[in-house]
Prior knowledge:
Chain A is α+β, with helices and mostly antiparallel strands.
Amino acid sequence: MKEAIGGTPARIEEALTAAEVPGGPLWQEDLLSLDDRQAFPEDAAKFLDEVGAAGFYLDRGPGGLLDLTWFIRLLARRDITIAVGHAKTFLGAVSVWLAGNADQRERLAADILDGAVVSWGLTERGHGGDLLAGGVRAEPTADGWRLTGEKWLINNATRGHLVCVLARTRPEGGARGFSLFLFDKRKADPRTWSALPKVATHGIRGADISGIAFAAAQLGPEALIGAPGTGIETTLKALQLTRTVCCGLSLGAVEHAIALGADYVSRRTLYGKRLADLPNIRHELGRAVATLHVAEAVVFAAARLAATAPGEMAVVSAVVKALVPELCQEAISAVGEVLGLRGFLSADEPYRAFQKLDRDHRIVAIFDGGTAVCRNQLIEHFPLLARTAPGASGNGSPLAEETQPLGAARLSVLSRRCSLVDGLDADCDVIARQAAAGELPERIAAAASAARESLRITRARMAEQSWEPHRIPQEAFDVARDFELCFAAAAACHLWTRGQPRPGDGDALWAAGLWLGGALAVIEEKLPHRSGTADTHGDAFEALADHLLAAAGGPVPALFGTGVTPL
Amino acid sequence: MNPTPGPRRLARLEHEFGDPFEPGNPLGFDRILDADEAETMFGPGEQALTEFGLNAEFVPARLGGRLDRLDDLVEIMRSVYRRDPCLGLGYGASSLIAGVNIWTAGSPRQQRSAADLLLSGGRIAVAYHELSHGNDMAETECRASLEPGRITLNGRKEVVTNIQRSEAFVLFARTAARQGARSHSQLLIDKASLDGGDFGYLPRFRTMGMRGVQLGGIEFRDCPVPDSALMGRPGSGLETALRSFQITRTTLVSMFCGVLDTGLEVALRHSTRRRLYGGPVVDMPHVRSVIAGAYADLLAADCLASVATRALHVLPGETAIYAQAVKFFVSKILIDAMNDLSEVLGAHFYVRDGEAAIFQKLLRDVQPAGFGHAARAACQVSLLSQLPLLARRGWAEPGVVPDEVFVAGRTLPALDFHALAISAAGREGLSGALTTGLAASRPGLLRPDVAEAAEFFAAEHRVLTERCRDLDVTSLGVAADPRSYDLVTRYVRVLVASACFETWRRTTAAVDTTTFTADQRWLAAVLHRLRNAAWNRPRSLPAELAEFLVEEAAHRTTARRGLGFTAQARP
């Protein structure tokens, strides 16, 4: 039986749309002006509090991660600053959901529903993503812990009421030498901590990117999250979830860019022709839309796998966080080239939201583990992934029925396999049969088959790689990217063979594999093995551009539309 | 009187500006960033350029200026761009574009007065752009009604650098109502002559990058100017632009190489100092690969742009092609390389203070390389329509490209503004030079990877010649099939490969073989990346080539040398 995916336009989208009017809390003019003035979008944050957005940040059980990711996507379509600035509370809280005791979880959930902002203090000046080099230390005292040191480049470090802090609890450090603490500013002695100044940033200029310094700040015993020494492990598991969620930002950003581009080309006349009627312009826009569908399929798979195959998330989250921001930035840049000067003007210009989203989106590839960090994590899995027996798919389907709540015990810092990719063979067979039956264009089956062959080649190359610690050769990074592309193909094929739209929510995109053809074309363009039908990719992009431009003025047609569950 | 040689002028400019990374330098990055934050031009920088007499670089020697070689001009401007592209564009390039049009089409009297104005430190703006028409200059609406004794202006120009603070401007205006290429003229308008006329300035246009540049607009309402303002024959405006833009498109984009030069230096400095996972970041193979790749891209950009710049002196009949190719290729590879380098900086790229802060400004400032002064896409379309003629003429029987186009520092023929052909009429010898050069290379001279890549691009040249020869030119307009557009991309890659191969080969044959340019490894790196770009695969360099380029870049940075082929000494 096929399972319905996506959802009906939810109340949240209605609420957000209603807030986009002049004078409303999400009025685009105001959000752009706040960016200009580097001011936090307070009204927007207040509005989100009022409509109960905090509910998305709680430990919502199975399906919760997908809902949250889609919610972030809807916010990011409007403004990445508010998406980053508000949804951060989930990132701050997730370690408690994973490793906190029942009392801690309950209290934090109540606090968040009450409007508390939670921040996440991982990084420090001088060693960024190198968590094991962290210098903030927590020493046991008679009645709890004493926290000293500085966390820097922390989102909401100043606005936040609580900060989840990773601190060294063994002087020698190491994988068991760190622990997590929930620092409550409201209860702490104000002389023992201070917020660091806001850092001026390239994009998300209004966001509170700052830091916090602790000077022997006293914490009660209840501040410790999980057992002492489990901080690194919990953090690595939490990152598997947050890296997935972050990709919602990329989806929203690329949709926003496409909407601006579609509107521009529909109105703009050059050389006596409407840009929307020029095949090359349509090709570029169509490719951007196809990229959006790839990203949607990948992010959907990752967010669902967190519930259906949590043990595989070490690989899945690395793949999604490395690939999705990169592909989406490519698409955004391509739209930027279409907009040209109009996407560069920052005032009194109808398309000036573009220059903001372009700056804003570049943060996604950086935070919560940059692209290289994620590829590193994927490469460490090469020996396991290279030898996974193909065709052993089953319990790793993002569309599987059984779902499991979040929990540290179900996640693992090392994945044994990636069953979504293992399933590519079977899904390719289905697609080949559909093409043979005339239900799908032949080129789609050819592209799927090219992905299957590419996966075989990539697995062989993964098996060949060897390296010393922290001396991973560049070739392995390139192989990792190929694996990510194969993952994307597998996600798209699986979604096609096992999913279907809910009525009215992107169903036209499903007719004759419209979205699938575009998605596989974008992927195949970059694969090590190709089908030789590359000349027909243009047809897929043209069809998507048609679909997009027919809907110009409305929302960008997307696989999942506004698919979030109602509040 | 001959001006002081270009390299000595450049050395003086470098000396006067000092090391931009030096924290206390009043002309350094810290102060440049302050100006960016304030969205103003960098005042002390402008003053220093006035003292240096930068405007004289735009004025031909025969008119008392220092412009005799365009490659010298580019090197001097790169030195400005590597510090602050706003100074480059907002102080320099705008007056340069005006100047080149005036030297191309102005009367002796107009040339004299423009030269005098520039040499006295004045500014001349270029009022070409109208927001509604973008690159489609033929659709220009701003009108100049030519009447005996006077000209009446109506309409507006938008997003024009320095329009308000210039003493004069070149105006591109419609002088005939009919469609076509002879309906526009260029005017050199002295602002003093506008006195009393009905005109007004538009509010400033703000931009994401180049934030300091004063972009404005002007609107005329039956505003009279003397008829002496007309440059050249009525109706010759587009023709003048087509000639002069060959110079400005080639050189302006080439100046942006200075941006990537600094981007590389920032990335090297940052990754050398920063330690992660127990060692310097620069020791990580991935980081080395990204830096080396961006360096190879700088070399490819520098090489094509330098060859095209010298061709303006040597092969003015062919540069209508090369200028478009430079704009199309160089702008994109510079922007992409800056994007790549941002990954090496990680979160530090995103922060607007600290020692890497200049990077985010340069990343924003480099964007107009792609759309300013003609968009990449417009150049691509222009090349597209010329493919069949090129295939039948220049590709089938390539003309000889003389050594001085490839070998830096040779004596060049004087720049002749009137020799620039409006159309190359299919003449183009550069792309075929690789095939000839490959055949002339003695066995064993080439590294196997270079030989293989060169064979690939020679074959590509043959394939394109076959494919394009019979293309229907009526199908090659702006509404062409995307697959036809792709032929331009492939062709330009062959041009780049050929420019690089021949620069290496002719330099090796002509001068001592110990120079960097004569080292075959940079060529191997550039060709490797071009080839993988053609196959749309990761362009990562083999470790040997990556090591070579990172070591070279690190060595030059330490030795205070520029990263381009000239390895310019720096303070």
